[in-house]
Amino acid sequence: MGNRRIAVIPGDGIGPEIMAATIRILEANGFQADWVYLEAGQPSLDKGKPAMPPETIQAIREVCTAIKGPTATPVGKGHTSANVALRKALDLFANVRPARSMPGLKGHFSETDIDIIIVRENTEDLYAGIEFQPHPDMAQAVKVITRPGCRRLVKYAFEMARVQGRKRLTAVHKANIMKITDGMFLEEFYKMAPSYPDIVADDIIVDNCCMQLVTRPEKFDVLVTENLYGDIVSDLCAGLVGGLGLAPGANIGETCSVFEAVHGSAPDIAGKGIANPTALLFSALMMLRHIGEREIADRIGKAVLKVMAEGKVLTGDLGGTATTEQYTDEVIRVSLGSVVQ
Is 94 helix (H, G, I), strand (E, B) or coil? Predict the structure, then answer.
């Protein structure tokens, strides 16, 4: 029996560097795959193709599982987001972003035990991209919320919470103002809740949620929310635990899943060998758990936490001086040491 096929999109900027580091750590720990390398982002644009070419989307559809590096998206002009195109084409409806306290890292919540998972709707809301300009002085955007979209999202969130042994699921919304759209989301949430009596279901308005996150983040467990709110809240949570350089993400669909770091392509440090691969590595560990390789994922995850706690070999964004290669070597050394022990 051959190895599992996994699609790989190295991405832009630091993407190829952190992707190489991530795959090296996985393979050093015994995970073998037939890596199917695909193009997206700037390399595709340079060839006159879309940022997310149809052939890349089709290849992921056939392989079903992908790991993706960051791809840049211009602000206010230029090509559409490769990420949004991919999520729409493959119907990757649930975006899962954990935020967990890291040992040894200094910050506002260094002494607080934060362990939050954000489940964000990934295909609807304002990110449907329906915009038009009926007048030179007026622009409009359509917020799209569907009942089936809400239903499958909250079902996924409840199921994920149950599988992971979580105790509380909180719906984040603005139904006090968006009474029809967010009201529909909240209605479907509470329709689903009685099927999961083992999980406490409650809700919170998004602005209050943000305030609570920066004052008492330890009170939250799993958050489920719409696309725009989820994008903002997940970045806020990443800031609570050390920044986007530590923030993994997964895009889950009915048949395909794409795992990617939350951060951008950081073109200012590309090619310098100093990028932090942790976010992409954690995304890869989410992928391993998703496909049943929990033992390898847990071993590497514990090794990263140990390296963080020791604080001797860290990249510059974490307060250290290590290169990408030195940090990668250290994670491998510690993870393989745990096997020997």
Answer: strand
Q: Which of 12, 174, 203, 317 is catalytic?
A: 174
Rounded Cα gap, residues 124 and 144, in angstroms: 6
Strand partners, 200: 168
Please identify which of the residues 68, 88, 127, 182 carries the catalytic annotation. 127
- Mean pLDDT, the chain, rounded, equals 92
Determine the angle formed by the axes of helices 147-163 and 181-192, rounding to 10 degrees.
40
Active-site residue, 235 included:
no
Q: Long-range CB contacts (< 8 A, 24+ apart) of 51-60?
A: 51/79, 51/80, 51/81, 51/82, 51/85, 52/82, 52/83, 52/85, 52/86, 52/89, 56/9, 57/85, 57/86, 57/89, 57/90, 59/7, 60/7, 60/86, 60/90, 60/256, 60/258
Clarify whether 179 is annotated catalytic: no
Q: How confident is the model at residue 1 (pLDDT cuts 50, 70, 90)?
A: very low
User: Using DSSP, how many helices (H) and how many strands (E) does the chain show?
Assistant: 11, 12
Rounded to whole angstroms, how far apart are CA atoms 132 and 324? 44
DSSP, residue by residue, 201-258:
EEEEEHHHHHHHHTT-GGG--EEEE-HHHHHHHHHHHHHHTT-GGG-EEEEE-SS-EE
Each residue of 293-311: pLDDT tens digit? Answer: 999 999 999 999 999 999 9
Asked whether the beta carbons of 331 and 303 are under 8 A apart, the reply is yes
In the chain, the amino acid numbered 269 is I
221 is catalytic: no
Q: What is the mean pLDDT of residues 257-278?
A: 93
pLDDT score, position 58: 96
Does the pLDDT at position 177 exceed 90?
yes
Q: What is the model's pLDDT at position 110?
A: 59
Please check the confidence at residue 109 and state whether its pLDDT lies above 70.
Answer: no
Q: What is the pTM assigned to this prediction?
A: 0.89
Place of tokens 């909240």: 186
SS3 of residue 35 by DSSP = strand
**Which one is catalytic: 12, 125, 182, 231?**
231
Give catalytic status of residue 37 as yes or no.
no
Cβ–Cβ under 8 Å, residues 16 and 24: no
The active-site residue out of 207, 272, 302, 312 is: 207
